[in-house]
Structures are given as structure tokens and as C-alpha cells.
Design brief:
By secondary structure, the protein is an alpha+beta fold. It has two domains: about 1-40; about 50-215, Gamma-glutamyl cyclotransferase-like (Hypothetical upf0131 protein ytfp, Roll). It contains six helices and five strands, in the order αβαββαββααα. It has helices at about 5-40, 60-65, 120-125, 175-190, 195-200, 210-215; strands at about 50-55, 70-90, 95-115, 135-140, 145-155. The strands form two sheets. The protein has a three-stranded antiparallel sheet, with helices on one face. It is globular and about 45 Å long. The chain starts with a helix and ends in a 7-residue tail after the last helix. Keywords: Lyase, Membrane, Transmembrane, Transmembrane helix.
Length: about 220
């Protein structure tokens, strides 16, 4: 009579090994996904974070002055917000950029990655402790449709909307230098031509920024 027990034992052993192999493969695949996700999402494995820039920090040279860890990641669009100018800066000699929630508009900018341990440098540049801007997280979309949560900054001072066709008051107008820096950064990053045209449409006060920032950025830029 044929003894089936050795066969059953062999099947159980093979089954056990297969299950171990399956479990091992599953664990490996999961770990690989976690590692890949972490490497693609700053703030995890790389100890970095996403920063969405829309103003003077569109220009790499400007951002790198005080944030040496900044690396270009992608252009991106922030829906439900508008670009505006408010609050006079002595450095720029005119109103500086801010974003304001507005369901009818969107803002195009740049996603940068920066080292998490240098986040305070960006906060200092934006005047967070001085009460000029406050940081907030926003969800932006890359040209490939990827949604990314990024840190950005909005002016603390309320920025009322100026109706189209209404003259922009002097205290809401950027200096020529400041707008040139924004334009140079937009062109450098390859922002859409229609958005660049939109940026050009903003009037300026005709003034130049403080000589020190102009010197640091290599003014004149020959953009406009």
C-alpha cells in the first residue's frame, strides 16, 4: 500500500516555504514602495520640504542668497488663489507679492526643495517673526498632474482685491526692480507665456530697489 504521509509532509514543507517566500516578497515590495515614496516626498527620507515660490524667489539667484540648500523641483499651479501686491518693502522700494484666496484665479510658481533644518532661514527671509508673512501649507499641481503639499507664505496684512480697470494705488504697486526679478525668475523657470504676459501687465512705481539687493542680484537684468 502506498504511504501518502511522506508526500503530505513534502507538500506541507513546500507550502510552508512558498508561504514564507510570498510573505518575504510582499515585505520586500512594501519596503521598496515606502523607500521610493520617501525619496519622492521631501520631509521624509531626505529631511527636506517642498516650498512653493511665486514672487522674487522665482529667481534662483535670489532664493540662494539666504537659502543655499534650495533645489529646483518643478513648476506648479496653485488653484483658488490670486497673485497680488501689498505692503511696502524698504529693500524693494515698493509693494511686494502675496497670495490671497480667490476661487476665480490661480497662481503659477516654482516648487523648490529645501533642507528641513534650514526652514528657519526661509522664515527669516519672509519676515515671519516680524509679522510680515505667515507660513501655510497649500496643495499645488505640477504640469504632469501630480498633487504636492508645499509650504508657502502669505502677507499678514489683509489685501483687498482691486477691481479690473481700477488704477492700482501707489502703496500696492511694485518697484521696477522687483517686478523684473519676478519676470526673470519666471522666464528662467519656463513658466507659461500667458502667465508671463500676465506678470508684465502689472504696473510699477518706476523705482529701483535698494542698491545692496541690486548689487547682489547683478542688476541691471535687461528683462523688460
Amino acid at each position: 500500500m502506498f504511504d501518502r504521509e511522506p508526500v503530505r509532509s513534502l507538500v506541507r514543507a513546500v507550502h510552508s516555504r512558498n508561504m514564507q517566500s510570498i510573505i518575504f516578497s510582499f515585505i520586500c515590495a512594501t519596503l521598496i514602495q515606502i523607500i521610493c515614496s520617501a525619496s519622492d516626498l521631501p520631509g521624509k527620507a531626505n529631511d527636506t520640504f517642498f516650498y512653493f515660490a511665486y514672487g522674487s524667489n522665482l529667481l534662483a539667484k535670489r532664493l540662494l542668497l539666504r537659502n543655499p540648500s534650495a533645489v529646483f523641483y518643478s513648476t506648479a499651479r496653485l488653484d483658488g488663489h490670486r497673485l497680488d501686491f501689498n505692503q511696502i518693502s524698504e529693500t524693494w522700494n515698493g509693494a511686494v507679492a502675496t497670495i490671497v484666496e480667490d476661487e476665480d484665479e490661480d497662481v503659477v510658481g516654482i516648487l523648490w526643495t529645501l533642507n528641513m533644518d534650514q526652514q528657519h532661514l526661509l522664515d527669516e527671509q519672509e519676515g515671519v517673526e516680524l509679522g510680515w508673512y505667515f507660513p501655510k501649507n497649500v496643495t499645488v499641481t505640477t504640469p504632469y498632474g501630480k498633487k504636492v503639499v508645499a509650504r508657502t507664505y502669505e502677507e499678514v496684512e489683509e489685501t483687498p482685491k482691486i477691481d479690473k480697470g481700477t488704477l492700482r494705488p501707489p502703496d500696492r504697486t511694485p518697484s521696477s526692480t522687483y517686478l523684473e526679478v519676478i519676470l526673470l525668475g519666471a522666464i528662467e523657470a519656463g513658466l507659461p507665456p500667458d502667465y508671463i504676459a500676465f506678470l508684465i501687465s502689472f504696473p510699477t512705481n518706476g523705482r529701483m530697489a535698494h542698491i545692496e539687493i541690486r548689487r547682489q542680484l547683478g542688476y541691471p537684468f535687461h528683462v523688460m
